[in-house]
Amino acid sequence: MKYYPVNLNITNRSCLVVGGGPVAFRKTSVLADCGADVTVVGMDFCDEFQKFNNMSSISLVQRKYFPSDLDGKFLVIGATDNEALNRRISADAEKKNMLCNIADVPEICNFILPSVIRQGDLVIALSTSGKSPAFAKKLRKDLEKTFGDEYALFLDLMGGIRQKLLSTAHSPEAHKHLFEKLIHSGLLEMIRNNQKEEINHLIKKVLGKQYDYDQLIRSI
């Protein structure tokens, strides 16, 4: 099986999770963190779901699953401990040409969820194509030691610079070389070492005196 890598924008999209245990809780948390409106259908909900009581983006429906629960949904995640039910959810979703993930059963999914490293807007997804989730987890833990919070600050800064350049009628192609110069001049290392004076010197040298590190970060 070869999977097509993609990052989905699910902001304000209606998504469904079927199940009420810890796995369903984790799947719901990730969807909500990415801005989705999540409906969770389950016979019983574990205690962790109480954390969602005051979240308008999450609706808990305590009853059994019906195929009509899929109506109007962008994607569905099956996270029950009932194999027959999980397979029924997959089959129902297939009839509607919906995106469907069944936890830990890749052969009845049309998409699988990678192991993810996040540092701000930096997202690194790791997948073993369903062959060894445990190894993907190990790789994630190894890489988390490499990619620290300086990457989040770096991307915030680059985003602030890009925003300001575009506001002054620069086309993306016109300032490509400026970003390459910043990247190859050790900017990330300067951020990692909190060398604000050196960062400002580099920014002003490459972009001009009107660019300032603190102002650019605050503009995001």
Task: Describe the protein.
There is one protein chain. By secondary structure, this protein is α/β, with parallel strands linked by helices. It has helices at 22-33, 83-95, 133-144, 150-167, 176-183, 187-192, 196-207, 213-218; strands spanning 14-18, 37-42, 58-62, 75-78, 99-102, 115-119, 122-126. A five-stranded parallel β-sheet has the order 3-2-1-4-5, sandwiched between helices. The chain has a two-stranded antiparallel sheet with strand order 6-7. Strand 1, helix 1 (22-33) and strand 2 form a beta-alpha-beta unit. It is elongated.
Large-scale geometry = elongated
Number of strands: 7
CATH topology of the largest domain: Rossmann fold
What is the rounded Rg?
Answer: 22 Å
Q: Average pLDDT, to the nearest integer?
A: 92
Name the descriptors:
single chain; 220 residues; alpha/beta; Rossmann fold; 3 domains; five-stranded parallel beta sheet; two-stranded antiparallel ribbon; 8 helices; 15% strand; elongated
Provide a concise account of the structure shown:
The protein has helices at 22-33, 83-95, 133-144, 150-167, 176-183, 187-192, 196-207, 213-218, and strands at residues 14-18, 37-42, 58-62, 75-78, 99-102, 115-119, 122-126.
